[in-house]
C-alpha cells in the first residue's frame, strides 16, 4: 500500500522501481500525461500481491492506450542513456535501441582487423526474434493474445542465442567465417531486414543490421553499406520495429527476411492471435522456413538481386506469395489451393499445346508432336502460341498481384531486365511457371498487336533482354519481352540443409568437366543415339548407364561433374512408390525414387559430392506429368546430397526438342556461360525459329552457377 510516496514493501523488480521513481519526478505532473493514466499507474503501485508479469502487462496496457504516458516514459528514460534517448531512438525512421554493443567503440577496437589478413574465426551466431511491449521493451509471453489495434515492437538481432527468442532451439547457426567481410573496410557485413504482412501495420522504412566479425549484431544511425562514423553510445544491441496489431480479432501473421545484397538468406514466419483485449490464451509461434545458404558461405560472390519472391504456406494451408525488393517489401498475397491450381493447370496446358496434341480414341489415343523437323513453327503459328500464352501469363500476374497498386509496383520494380530469386518454403510442392508471367496488360477477347521493335530485337540479338520499343507498349501489345522468362534471369535455389551452402560452381578442380548419363531404353533409339553422340563430342569423358545398380556405383564412387537423366518420368505404380509423385525410369524397367538416392548416400564415398557438387539435369521426356511439382522430391533430395543445382521442366517435352535443348545448354555451359545466361540464350534461339518451349525449363539453383575449368 502507498502512503504519500512511502511504500510498505521494497520494490520487487526493475519496472516497479522505475515507476516509483517516475511518480516522484517532475514529469509525473506534465499536462500531457493523461489523468486516467496516472490513476491506473497509482492503482498498480498499490497492488501488493501481483507478480512481475502481471505488473508488466498492466504497465504496458497504460503505455499502449495513452500517448501522453508513452511520451512521459520516454522523456523520463532519456537523461541517463549516454547518447541514446531511452532504450530506443528513431533515426530516419529506423528504431534502434538497447544497451551499447559490448565490443564496439574505442574499447572494442581490437575486433577490427586488417582486411588484407585472414578473417578471424568466429563463434556460432543465431537469429533471435521476439515480440516486446513498447517503452519497457519487456518480452510479450508466447501465450499472450495481442490486443486489437495495440502497438507492439518486433525485436530482432543476430548473435548469441537468447532464451526469450521465439526461435530458441531451432535456428540455424550464422557462422561469421562465411561472410564476405567487405563492408566498413572489411570489419563486418551489412544485412538487410524486410518485414511484410497482410495483417500488421509497419512503418515503411528500409532496415539494416551490421554484423561485425565477432560478437552480436548492432544497429546504428549510419547509412547501410557505408563506413561507420558512429560512436559506441550510438549503437543498439537490437533492431526494434514498431507495429500495430489489426483492429479485427483473429489469427495474424508476419514474415521476416534477412538478406545480403538482395539475396534472401533466411526467412521466418511468425503467427499469433489478436483479440479485442490482451489475454493469456494465445500461442505466438515463429519458425525458420527457408535458408538460402547455411552460414552465408560463398556470399562474397553472390550477385545482387533486385527482387525476391517467397512462396509458402500458412498453418491453415493457404498459400502465400511475398514479393520483396532491396528497398523494402512490395506486396504479400494469400491464395487458395483451388484458385492457384486451376490457373496454373490451364497455363501449363496452353504451353503443352504449343508443341503436343492428343489424337485418336481409346487404345489408339496418342500424343503427336506439332513441331516441324527443325523443332520450329511458321510465324503465323508462333503468333497464335504467343497470344495464348500472353493471355494466360497476364492471368497468372493478376493472381499473384490482384490489386491495381500491387501490380503497378511489381511492374515498376521489374521493368528493366534483372535477376529474380524465387524462394520456396521447405516441403512446398506447388511450383509457379514464373517464366510465363506476362506483365503487359491484355484484354481477354482482344486481338494482340505485335511489337515490331521487340521481334526485330529477337532476330538481331539472342542475348538481348529488353525491347527497344518498350515506350510504345500500349494495351494489348504482344512483345516477347513482356514474358518474365525472356526478360529476366529467374533462379529458384532450394532451401539448403544445415551445413550446406549455395553453390556457384559445379565440378572438380583442375580437370575438364565430365558427364554421367542415366538413360532410358524406351526412347526412340535413332534420336537417342544421335543425341548421346553429340554430347560425347563436348565432354572429354561421358559414362552412360541403363541399370540402376551400375548408376549407383558410379554416383557413389566416381560421379561426373554433370549428371544427366535422359529418359522418362513415370507415375508411381506400387504402394512402395507412392512416396514420390514421379519415378525416374532408366534402362528398360529400372525405377529410381528419391529415397533410393538417400539410401545410396549412406555410403561414406558419397562425401565426394560435397567437393564435386555436380549439376543435375532431369530432362523431361516424361509422359505422365503436367506439374513440375512432381519433380520437387528429386530437386530437394539432390540439394540435400550436395548437388550444386537441378535443371527441370515445367511440362512434358518431346524427345527431339528435349535433346536439342540439352545439347545447346551443355554446349554453352562448357563454353563458360552461367546457368541463367545459358537458359535464356537457348530460349531465345528456340524463339527465333518459332518455338516457345524454352520457357518450359527451370533452374533450381543460382542463376550465377557455372562449371569449373571451362571457357
Describe this structure in words.
The longest helix has 22 residues, at 379-400. The strands form 8 sheets. Strands 24, 25, 26, 27, 28, 29, 30 and 31 form an 8-stranded mixed beta sheet that branches. Strands 6, 8, 9, 11, 12 and 13 form a 6-stranded mixed beta sheet that branches. A 5-stranded antiparallel beta sheet has the order 3-4-10-7-5, with no helix packed on it. Helix 5 packs antiparallel against helix 6. With 711 residues, it is of the alpha/beta class. The chain starts with a strand and ends with a strand. Strand 27 (583-586) and strand 28 (590-592) form a beta hairpin.
Discrete helix count? 16
In percent, how helical is the residue content?
25-40%
CA-based gyration radius: 29 Å
Give the N-terminus to C-terminus distance in angstroms: 82 Å
What is the molecular shape?
elongated
Find the structural class using helix and strand composition. Answer: alpha/beta
Largest sheet: 8 strands, mixed
Number of strands: 32
Mean pLDDT: 81
Question: Topology, pairings included?
Answer:
Elements: E1 2-3, E2 6-7, H1 14-23, H2 35-45, H3 52-65, H4 67-77, E3 88-91, E4 94-97, E5 126-132, E6 146-147, E7 151-159, E8 188-196, E9 207-212, E10 238-244, E11 250-260, E12 263-275, E13 285-291, E14 307-313, E15 319-325, E16 328-335, H5 337-353, E17 356-359, E18 366-369, H6 379-400, H7 404-413, E19 419-424, E20 449-450, H8 452-460, E21 477-478, H9 484-487, E22 489-491, E23 505-506, E24 515-519, H10 525-538, E25 542-545, H11 548-557, E26 562-570, E27 583-586, E28 590-592, H12 594-600, H13 608-612, E29 615-620, H14 632-640, E30 645-649, H15 655-670, H16 675-688, E31 697-700, E32 706-707
Helix pairs in contact: 2-3, 3-4, 5-6, 10-15, 12-14, 15-16
Amino acid at each position: 500500500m502507498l502512503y504519500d510516496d512511502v511504500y510498505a514493501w521494497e520494490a520487487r523488480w526493475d519496472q516497479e522501481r522505475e515507476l516509483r521513481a517516475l511518480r516522484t519526478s517532475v514529469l509525473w505532473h506534465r499536462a500531457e500525461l493523461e489523468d486516467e493514466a496516472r490513476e491506473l499507474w497509482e492503482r498498480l503501485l498499490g497492488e501488493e500481491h501481483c507478480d512481475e508479469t502481471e505488473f508488466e502487462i498492466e504497465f504496458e496496457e497504460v503505455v499502449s492506450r495513452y500517448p501522453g504516458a508513452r511520451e512521459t516514459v520516454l522523456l523520463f528514460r532519456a537523461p541517463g542513456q549516454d547518447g541514446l534517448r531511452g532504450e530506443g531512438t528513431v533515426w530516419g525512421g529506423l528504431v534502434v535501441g538497447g544497451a551499447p554493443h559490448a565490443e564496439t567503440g574505442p574499447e572494442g577496437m581490437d575486433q577490427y582487423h586488417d582486411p588484407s589478413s585472414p578473417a578471424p574465426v568466429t563463434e556460432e551466431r543465431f537469429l533471435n526474434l521476439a515480440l516486446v511491449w513498447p517503452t519497457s521493451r519487456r518480452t510479450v509471453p508466447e501465450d499472450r493474445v495481442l490486443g486489437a489495434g495495440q502497438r507492439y515492437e518486433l525485436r530482432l538481432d543476430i548473435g548469441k542465442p537468447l532464451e526469450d527468442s521465439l526461435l530458441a532451439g531451432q535456428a540455424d547457426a550464422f557462422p561469421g567465417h562465411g561472410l564476405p567481410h567487405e563492408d566498413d573496410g572489411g570489419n563486418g557485413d551489412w544485412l538487410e531486414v524486410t518485414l511484410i504482412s497482410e495483417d500488421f501495420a509497419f512503418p515503411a522504412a528500409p532496415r539494416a543490421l551490421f554484423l561485425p566479425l565477432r560478437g552480436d549484431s548492432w544497429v546504428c544511425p549510419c547509412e547501410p553499406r557505408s563506413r561507420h562514423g558512429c560512436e559506441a553510445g550510438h549503437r543498439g544491441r537490437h533492431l526494434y520495429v514498431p507495429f500495430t496489431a489489426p483492429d479485427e480479432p483473429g489469427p495474424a501473421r508476419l514474415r521476416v527476411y534477412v538478406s545480403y545484397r538482395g539475396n534472401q538468406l533466411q526467412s521466418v514466419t511468425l503467427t499469433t492471435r489478436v483479440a479485442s483485449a490482451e489475454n493469456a490464451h494465445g500461442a505466438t509461434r515463429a519458425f525458420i522456413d527457408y535458408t538460402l545458404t547455411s552460414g552465408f558461405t560463398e556470399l562474397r560472390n553472390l550477385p545482387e538481386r533486385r527482387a525476391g519472391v517467397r512462396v509458402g504456406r500458412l498453418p491453415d494451408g493457404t498459400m502465400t506469395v511475398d514479393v520483396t525488393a532491396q528497398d523494402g517489401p512490395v506486396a504479400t498475397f494469400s491464395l487458395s489451393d483451388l484458385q492457384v491450381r486451376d490457373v496454373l493447370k490451364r497455363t501449363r496446358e496452353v504451353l503443352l499445346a504449343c508443341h503436343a496434341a492428343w489424337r485418336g480414341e481409346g487404345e489408339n489415343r496418342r500424343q503427336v508432336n506439332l513441331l516441324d523437323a527443325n523443332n520450329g513453327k511458321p510465324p503465323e503459328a508462333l503468333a497464335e502460341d504467343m497470344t495464348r500464352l500472353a493471355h494466360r501469363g497476364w492471368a497468372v500476374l493478376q493472381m499473384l498481384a490482384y490489386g491495381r497498386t500491387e501490380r503497378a509496383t511489381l511492374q515498376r520494380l521489374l521493368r528493366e531486365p534483372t535477376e529474380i530469386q524465387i524462394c520456396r518454403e521447405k516441403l512446398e510442392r506447388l511450383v509457379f511457371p514464373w517464366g510465363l508471367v506476362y506483365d503487359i496488360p491484355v484484354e481477354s477477347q482482344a486481338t494482340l498487336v505485335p511489337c515490331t521493335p521487340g521481334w526485330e530485337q529477337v532476330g538481331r540479338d539472342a542475348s538481348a533482354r529488353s525491347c527497344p520499343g518498350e515506350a510504345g507498349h500500349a494495351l494489348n501489345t504482344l512483345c516477347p519481352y513482356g514474358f518474365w522468362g525472356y526478360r529476366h534471369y529467374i533462379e529458384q535455389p532450394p532451401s539448403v540443409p544445415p551445413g550446406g551452402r549455395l553453390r556457384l560452381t559445379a565440378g572438380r578442380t583442375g580437370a575438364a568437366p565430365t558427364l554421367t548419363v542415366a538413360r532410358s531404353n524406351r526412347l526412340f533409339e535413332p534420336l537417342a543415339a544421335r543425341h548421346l553422340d553429340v554430347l560425347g563430342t563436348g565432354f572429354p569423358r561421358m559414362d552412360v548407364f541403363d541399370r540402376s545398380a551400375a548408376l549407383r556405383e558410379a554416383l557413389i564412387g566416381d560421379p561426373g561433374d554433370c549428371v544427366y537423366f535422359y529418359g522418362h518420368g513415370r507415375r508411381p505404380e506400387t504402394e512402395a512408390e507412392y512416396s514420390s509423385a514421379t519415378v525416374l525410369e532408366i534402362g528398360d524397367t529400372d525405377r529410381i525414387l528419391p529415397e533410393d538416392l538417400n539410401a545410396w548416400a549412406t555410403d561414406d564415398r558419397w562425401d565426394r559430392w560435397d567437393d564435386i557438387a555436380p549439376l543435375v539435369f532431369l530432362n523431361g521426356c516424361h509422359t505422365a506429368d503436367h506439374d513440375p511439382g512432381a519433380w520437387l522430391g528429386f530437386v530437394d533430395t539432390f540439394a540435400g546430397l550436395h548437388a550444386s543445382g537441378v535443371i527441370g521442366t515445367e511440362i512434358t517435352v518431346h524427345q527431339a526438342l528435349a535433346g536439342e535443348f540439352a545439347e545447346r545448354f551443355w554446349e554453352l555451359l562448357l563454353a563458360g556461360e552461367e546457368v541463367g545466361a545459358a537458359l535464356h540464350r537457348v530460349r531465345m534461339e528456340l524463339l527465333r525459329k518459332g518455338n516457345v518451349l524454352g520457357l518450359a525449363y527451370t533452374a533450381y539453383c543460382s542463376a550465377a552457377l557455372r562449371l569449373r575449368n571451362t571457357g
